[in-house]
Amino acid sequence: MDRQERIARSIVQTIVKANGAKRQSTSPIALLLALFSAFFSLYQLVLRKVRPADFANLRRKHWGVSDDDYIKSFQSGEDGAGEEALKAIGDMGFSGSTFYSTADQKYLVKSVPRHSEHSFFCDDLLTPYVQHMATHPRSLLVRICDFLSAYGPSLGRIFGLAPSHHIVMDNIMYGREEAKKRGEAEWEHWDLKPTSYFYPERDIAGGALTSEATKSRLADEFHDKIILSREQAEDFFSSLEADTKLLAEHNAVDYSLFLVRMSAPGPTAASVSSPAESSMVPSQPPSVPPTPPTWRTGVASADGKYIFRASILDFFWAKHKVHAKFMTLLIKLWNVLISKHGPMSITTTPDDYRERFLKMCRGIVEIKD
């Protein structure tokens, strides 16, 4: 079993067992052997759920996801166990990051390996996030369904061989694989951030010192317009305003708007409730509630050409954390001693980032009265 599979197995076991039957009592010898095995584990760390009651309340009460349906997404085969329940969809980077999708494509699991990021979410943002998601059903913030953390000593944790924290979130690309099987056009997607900031990979020596592979990981640009009715646009902007206000109040920067575009199936695409679109727009949790159409399920453009989804991702970088403070100092010294480029998206102020982010989002929308 390779590294990815062992990490996946530890995630699956944590989610399934935490919601299953009560553990049976074990003998002292069995417990000792389990502790010995856990300590010498390199990749399959012992994980626990952080604030499980809060996330369970969001899933059940506000997102309409039953415990049985949630667990089913993390089960494979008749015994409901094994790494096949999660499929790796991202490469294992130098930082040890992982990215998985459940077999049914409903959920994604993303590691949060940096201490500054997972400590910010756990210590500063988790409670405001839970409260915000409970009171803003049309929020564009990605729905985080569980937060997993490693506990107990192990060689894998000591040497950083496996990520110690993971978030389970809903998959805004849910339905793409089924669309492929039906022979529909490939879904397009963009990870959008304000591009007016200083990006060393792009701006130093015109990007000549960095590989194309590295530059390709920078924020995308959407060279088009989302054609919306005034009502659709106001709903979109209202959600963006509320969500980014929460993030700015807690010093978050560098988040992105993940935008998905699907070709509408026919001339009746102006109405998401049309039968032609029923196969493209989810009608079951975790994508709903609220009742479609929403930016989570799919909003039809006012010109009838496309269906769009959108979500705010990666809001774990906070200006008050040590890593962020170090990067801010480094960029200030760069601007003073070497070349005046201005702040990066990770070193600017939360209010400045919010302003540019909202300007970017408004810039890609065209209102059709």
UniProtKB/TrEMBL annotation:
Q: Which InterPro entries match?
A: PInositol-4-P-4/5-kinase_C_sf, PInositol-4-P-4/5-kinase_core, PInositol-4-P-5-kinase_N, PInositol-4/5-P-5/4-kinase
Any one GO MF annotation of this record: ATP binding
Domain PIPK as annotated: residue spans: 1-365
Give the signal peptide, or none: none
Q: Where is this region: Disordered?
A: 270-294
One GO BP on record is: phosphatidylinositol phosphate biosynthetic process
What the entry lists under SUPFAM superfamilies is as follows:
SAICAR synthase-like
Give the residues annotated as coiled coil. none
Tell me a GO cellular component: plasma membrane
Pro residues composition-biased segments: 283-293
Q: Which UniProt keywords apply?
A: ATP-binding, Kinase, Membrane, Nucleotide-binding, Transferase, Transmembrane, Transmembrane helix
Q: What stretches pass through the bilayer?
A: 29-47
Q: Spell out the protein name for this chain.
A: PIPK domain-containing protein
> Which organism encodes this protein?
Achaetomium macrosporum
